[in-house]
């Protein structure tokens, strides 16, 4: 089985799943959007909107207006929906393929586990980022017309890169859970990891305002740096501050990839020895 | 409506044993709730000019929301996962419906889980923004206890409603997500956003949230109105839950129940 065939198989499966679970996708687009806007505007139900806008402007250090904050809240919701989908799908799908559906046996007959897993980690996040952020260009256009589409044009490549990094990161957790540890409820790991990453990443406010205890787990993932880049790009425009988080994401991507290459090779040998 | 106390005691015993079997899931849900709470409430508190007022107003809403969400997840658990394990059939063969299953879980979900999650979230929220956790101890314990009492029929009502919708429509579990979004109004989003805050009492979970707010003196709807409504809503929600769950049972008896993921 060639690399191209594996990609086509993954693409076919995810399009079929997208059609089958379309209503769940609608929820995946809506909930983070409501959640993200709520995080900024819930205080406005109790205090003056101007007071909340001014407080956020002071925290960021840039004078912002209401539209800027709505645009920011909507854009940042894409990180949330992307994270939920990629972490959940990467961890739970692999477990189900091995422990519940048993389809990894067929995979081993057609190709090796290493190629399959790396394809999953590299290609699938791209599909999942597209699927989880389909609402974003429409929402941004409705809020800021052409400016919204311009924002989407420079945010989307960043989401794709971060999505791949997150896919590789999730695979590092999915492999031990699926192959090396006996665990009855793997979805617990995914369901705890998702809010732990989001709570510690400074998704709505700068990470310096998040207590250290909460951000420790998030720092192992690419999410805090991705949030930082988005915040700088959306609220302060392109400036040299973007260099540090960009470098960290690039290094993280290389580290996750290197570990995964070794880990998937080891798992392939392990699976052929003891069976899947 | 025939209320049989012995039957209720049996159901509570069954619920306790089921909860013991699923202790790991409860612990995971407990941690999960606190973490999700922090995702939303760290920015909300940081962006609020008066952090103490913000915590005392928004946090009680989470309690109302948790009650409604828990009941919906419990009802769908009964009609979804337990169908696969055969537990739904076992319950139904004994003449028990979704309402009975909700009753079996009510003491664990409302009294133990929702309350402990609420106070743990309150401690986490106050510590994160550097406030004294003791400010979240209710000033009026009586109102908090009334909130717990009203939470029970609210729990039964939302669970029965989602049970019926899950069974009789094709979109199944998505109803829970739709309801979760609607229920935020009056609970997490305080009733002050409505021109007349009392309009949001249309959401049964609002009264629970408002009573918890009353325990801190941050209620938006007048406490006399809430107290006056309490016996009415307890009866009304319980009766409606009973009727809806009967309807759900009749639907299952007629068309069967298929296993849905």
From TrEMBL, chain A:
Keywords: Membrane, Transmembrane, Transmembrane helix. It comes from the Archaea. The chain crosses the membrane at residues 21-46, 66-87, 122-143, 149-175, 187-207, 242-263. This is Uncharacterized protein. The lineage of its organism: Archaea, Thermoproteota, Thermoprotei, Desulfurococcales, Desulfurococcaceae.
């Amino acid at each position: 089985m060639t690399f191209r065939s594996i990609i086509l198989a993954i693409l076919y499966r995810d399009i079929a799943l997208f059609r089958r679970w379309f209503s769940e996708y609608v929820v995946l687009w809506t909930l983070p959007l409501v959640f993200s806007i709520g995080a900024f505007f819930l205080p406005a139900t109790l205090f003056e909107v101007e007071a909340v806008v001014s407080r956020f402007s002071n925290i960021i250090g840039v004078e912002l207006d209401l539209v800027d904050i709505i645009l920011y809240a909507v854009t940042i919701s894409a990180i949330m929906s992307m994270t939920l989908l990629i972490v959940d799908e990467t961890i739970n799908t692999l477990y189900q393929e091995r422990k519940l559906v048993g389809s990894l046996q067929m995979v081993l007959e057609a190709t090796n586990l290493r190629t399959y897993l790396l394809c999953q980690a590299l290609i699938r996040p791209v599909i999942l980022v597209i699927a989880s952020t389909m609402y974003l260009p429409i929402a941004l256009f409705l809020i800021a017309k052409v400016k919204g589409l311009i924002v989407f044009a420079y945010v989307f490549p960043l989401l794709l890169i971060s999505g791949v990094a997150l896919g590789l990161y999730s695979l590092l957790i999915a492999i031990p859970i699926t192959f090396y540890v006996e665990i009855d409820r793997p979805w617990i790991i995914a369901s705890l990891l998702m809010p732990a990453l989001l709570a510690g990443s400074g998704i709505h406010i700068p990470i310096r305002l998040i207590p250290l205890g909460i951000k420790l787990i998030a720092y192992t993932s690419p999410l805090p740096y991705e949030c930082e880049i988005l915040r700088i790009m959306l609220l302060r425009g392109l400036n040299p501050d973007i260099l540090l988080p960009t470098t960290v994401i690039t290094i993280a991507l290389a580290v996750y990839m290197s570990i995964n290459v070794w880990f998937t090779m080891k798992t392939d040998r392990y699976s052929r020895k003891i069976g899947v | 409506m025939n209320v049989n106390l012995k039957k209720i005691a049996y159901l509570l015993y069954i619920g306790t044993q089921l909860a013991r079997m699923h202790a790991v899931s409860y612990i995971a849900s407990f941690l999960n709730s606190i973490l999700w709470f922090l995702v939303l409430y760290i920015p909300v508190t940081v962006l609020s000019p008066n952090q103490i007022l913000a915590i005392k107003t928004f946090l009680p809403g989470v309690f109302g929301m948790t009650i409604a969400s828990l009941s919906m997840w419990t009802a769908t658990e009964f009609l979804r996962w337990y169908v696969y394990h055969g537990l739904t059939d076992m319950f139904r063969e004994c003449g028990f419906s979704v309402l009975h299953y909700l009753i079996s879980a009510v003491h664990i979900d409302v009294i133990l889980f929702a309350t402990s999650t609420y106070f743990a979230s309150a401690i986490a929220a106050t510590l994160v923004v550097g406030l004294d956790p003791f400010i979240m101890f209710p000033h009026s314990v009586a109102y908090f206890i009334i909130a717990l009492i009203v939470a029970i029929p609210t729990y039964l009502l939302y669970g029965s409603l989602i049970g019926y919708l899950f069974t009789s429509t094709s979109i199944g579990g998505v109803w829970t997500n739709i309801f979760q979004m609607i229920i935020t109004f009056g609970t997490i989003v305080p009733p002050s956003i409505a021109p007349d805050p009392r309009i949001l009492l249309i959401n049964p979970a609002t009264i629970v949230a408002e009573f918890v707010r009353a325990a801190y003196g941050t209620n938006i709807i007048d406490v006399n109105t809430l107290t006056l409504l309490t016996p009415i809503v307890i009866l009304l929600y319980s009766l409606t839950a009973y009727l809806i769950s009967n309807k759900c049972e009749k639907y299952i008896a007629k068309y069967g129940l298929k296993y849905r993921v």
